[in-house]
Write a sequence for this structure.
């Protein structure tokens, strides 16, 4: 069934023109739950908390691009602990809240005396108590420098309750899948080594990506006979179908096998990490192993690996409360290096930035656009719950969000051009013919912008969305016309004075 797009668009249209208002009852920075799993009546219910997400996205300046770092993996493997360290690092790096205590010669992590367990951190805890399941996003974006003068927003996402026994495979897949869909840098936290079942889980969850590829190929209608199969997905249409997801990084915790453990020589440890990943991903003869690896490669632009050593036995004790002095030096050195790697938004002469803004089909998203996608995907999971989504369902969610964003961008393009001519700040009056001409020019610009973006999914939905653009700019045109009329120096003269003047003579 076709989604009724014009109806959806009116409701879903993100507001790009007016800055969203930030009205939070709780302004203390903390992790906000954007997805919760389980309700009183249904342990497998999937609930998306849109208002929490919107409140976070509203803190990102209009038009800025957004990087999303998300950590997934088994329960109690130090994910929230790591994310809390990310916060401490970002606090010292970030342009909007650079700490004043800088320059005393100590490393950023040496200035942290205690890593808080709750306040100001992602809740990490000792003990075996099971946390609630779901997905959390840090309440505040961090702003990092990008290219000259430009900045990007960075959002951190924590997931909880995955892979443990009483979570169904479907729900685990839903959390992993949503994390994959919304992140530009996904960290897959694993204990001690990358195991075959970690790879299989990743392949299963990134099945979403493969389905999206397949559905897109179908929708594009290039060649109905070409089936994009697991094996040839990347090669058959390599020019137009790139991997749908950007980056997956295995983060191995408690690694015990470094040849060198010299904390001043992290570089040779990094060489060992790369060698290890190469070994794990090396083509295997058995065809199911090979398939798993091909699947992963076709879903992610980049697969990488980092390793951390054990943080020290004090850290794993139940009563450990975050005393940084009790953490092993090597762990902290690796942590330092890891933070630099993950939050590398500028790159260097020899390498591109490791952290990139979230893209969908190669296009970098703004906060509003990212919000549209997350909402669309989350609603999809809300509807299907623990069931695996069909390719069509995935495509529909993606194209719905894409159309909504394309409509907003089209209308924006129109308004921008017309604002210069006849917006509230404009001063000159234009003759009706001039206005008509500008309107036509701006309409063309709007449609070109729309067409450039709304290029996949149901034809009918795209057509409906295009009509919504035209309808809205027709309305806006009337507003511009009346604004322009208000500047007519002859207005009033023509209607009242002119007849009098004529009568006088
Ligand atoms: P999460 O469930 O994956 O978010 O795990 P937490 O971050 O809440 O940490 C669970 C426990 O593991 C806490 O007691 C931490 O002190 C401890 N921990 C944190 N990092 C590491 C690590 O790298 N290795 C080990 N063995 N334990 C860790
Ligand atoms: Mg946690």
């Amino acid at each position: 069934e076709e989604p009724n797009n014009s109806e959806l668009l009116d409701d879903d249209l993100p507001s790009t023109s007016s800055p969203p208002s930030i009205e939070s009852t709780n302004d203390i920075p903390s992790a906000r739950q954007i997805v919760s799993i389980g309700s009183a009546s249904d342990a497998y219910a999937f609930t998306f908390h849109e208002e929490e997400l919107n409140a976070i996205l509203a803190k990102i300046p209009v038009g800025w691009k957004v990087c999303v770092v998300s950590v997934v993996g088994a329960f109690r493997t130090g994910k929230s602990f790591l994310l809390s360290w990310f916060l401490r690092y970002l606090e010292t790096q970030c342009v909007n809240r650079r700490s004043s205590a800088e320059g005393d010669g100590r490393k950023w992590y040496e200035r942290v005396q205690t890593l808080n367990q709750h306040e100001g951190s992602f809740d990490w805890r000792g003990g075996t108590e099971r946390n609630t399941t779901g997905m959390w996003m840090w309440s505040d974006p961090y702003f990092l420098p990008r290219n000259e003068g430009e900045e990007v927003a960075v959002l951190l996402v924590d997931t909880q309750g995955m892979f443990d026994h009483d979570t169904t495979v479907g729900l685990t897949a839903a959390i992993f899948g949503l994390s994959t869909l919304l992140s530009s840098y996904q960290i897959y936290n694993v204990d001690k080594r990358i195991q075959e079942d970690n790879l299989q889980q990743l392949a299963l969850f990134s099945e979403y990506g493969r389905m999206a590829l397949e559905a897109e190929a179908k929708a594009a209608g290039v060649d109905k006979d070409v089936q994009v199969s697991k094996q040839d997905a990347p090669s058959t249409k390599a020019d137009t179908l790139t991997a749908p997801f950007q980056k997956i990084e295995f983060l191995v915790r408690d690694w015990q096998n470094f040849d060198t453990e010299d904390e001043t020589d992290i570089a040779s440890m990094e060489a060992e990490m790369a060698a290890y990943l190469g070994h794990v991903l090396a083509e295997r003869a058995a065809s199911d192993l090979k398939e798993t690896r091909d699947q992963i490669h076709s879903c992610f632009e980049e697969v990488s690996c980092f390793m951390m050593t054990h943080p020290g036995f004090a850290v794993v004790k139940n009563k450990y409360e975050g005393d940084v002095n009790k953490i092993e030096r090597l762990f902290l050195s690796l942590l330092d290096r890891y933070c630099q790697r993950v939050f590398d938004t500028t790159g260097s002469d020899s390498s591109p930035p490791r952290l990139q803004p979230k893209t969908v089909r190669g296009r970098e998203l703004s906060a509003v656009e990212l919000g549209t996608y997350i909402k669309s995907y989350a609603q999809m999971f809300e509807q299907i719950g623990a069931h695996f989504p069909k390719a069509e369902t995935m495509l529909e969610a993606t194209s719905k969000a894409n159309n909504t964003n394309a409509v907003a961008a089209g209308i924006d393009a129109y308004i921008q051009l017309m604002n210069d001519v006849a917006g509230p700040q404009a001063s000159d009056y234009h003759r009706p013919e001039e206005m008509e001409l500008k309107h036509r020019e701006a309409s063309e610009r709007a449609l070109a912008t729309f067409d450039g973006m709304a290029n996949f999914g149901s034809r009918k939905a795209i057509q409906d969305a295009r009509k919504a653009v035209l309808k809205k700019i027709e309305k806006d045109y009337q507003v511009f016309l009346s604004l322009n009329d208000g500047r007519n120096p002859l207005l009033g003269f023509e209607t009242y004075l002119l007849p009098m003047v004529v009568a006088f003579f």
In short: The two ends are 71 Å apart (CA to CA). The first helix runs from residue 5 to 12.
